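Lay summary. Proteins are chains of building blocks that fold into shapes, and those shapes determine what they do. In this project we predict the shape from the chain. Here is one chain we studied, written as its sequence of building blocks.
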Amino acid sequence: MFYDALALKFQEHANAENAFHMKAYMRNKFEFYGIKAGLRRQLMNGVFSLHNEEVKSTIRKLVYHLYDSAYREMHLCAMELFQRTTKRSMIEEDLEIIEYLIVTNSWWDTVDYIAKQLLGQYLKLFPDKRTSVLSTFSSSPDLWLNRSTILFQLGYKDQTDEKILFKQCSKFKDSKEFFLQKAIGWALREYAKTNPKAVLNFVNSTQLKSLSRREAIRNIA
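And here is the predicted shape, written in a compact code that computers can read:
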């Protein structure tokens, strides 16, 4: 079984000192094996290569199993494996999984990946779902769903829907929540690589929080 093989491999490479520091960095929200990203992916890929067909055929159940773990490395593997195995084969019902991954074991390290790689891909494949999903996620009391509506277009570049980006930034511009202010600045800064003039015009015509504004225009000459 993939899950058991992965857990065993991670246990074999656990590093208590790394785990202590990684747990502290994440404000003691999760347990850690103490395996850094590069080695974690290497180990995951090795186990995946031995259980390729199992993972592909059970991925929509496997992600929940991985997310039930107390260990952050398992959560990170869940989202990366889901992205890898469903990138070209997402179905409309996958929105339920994506939302679950955002609101469960939530912190920036998973949510930012999920917003860009999973929600972003989903809304590209199912553009007719965009309005309803963004409306639902935006009106949720869950700040991580809110953050995802701002960040999902990261990497869209010239495919970015400017109206949606600016609408989502405007929707949360008065929030006192650090993670929303930071997301606004990040999303605008990323889009500024494609259309700096539009971002500058938006920033100058919108009363953003100082953190959002500073982050948005940081790289605009």
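What the prediction tells us: The first helix runs from residue 2 to 12.
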